[in-house]
Amino acid sequence: VWSSITPLRSEERFYNEQLKLQTTHHILIRFRSDVESTDRIKYGSRYFEIVSLKNIDEAGRLLIIVAKETS
């Protein structure tokens, strides 16, 4: 599937007394009706958890996915 991945922001937070980096990305793909917010995306060796989905202009051509990188 064709895609474009762009980092949006990175945050450092303490979790269980450890510093954890969390990065949020915009992922742009051709529209697919089978993508759901409960899905995960694998890109190479990286995994992304879907935060939100947006069908651009409700035209059914492109889908913007906001996702956070997980380990």
Describe it:
0% of the residues lie in helices and 69% in strands. By secondary structure, it is an all-beta fold. It has a 5-stranded antiparallel β-sheet, with no helix packed on it. The radius of gyration is 13 Å and the shape is elongated. The two termini are 22 Å apart. The relative contact order is 0.28.
Can you tag this structure with a few keywords?
mainly beta; 5-stranded antiparallel sheet; single chain; 71 residues
Count of beta strands: 5
What's the arrangement of strands in the largest beta sheet? 1-2-5-4-3
> Which word captures the global form?
elongated
Largest sheet: 5 strands, antiparallel
Task: Give a quick precis of the structure.
A hairpin with a 6-residue loop joins strand 4 (46-55) and strand 5.
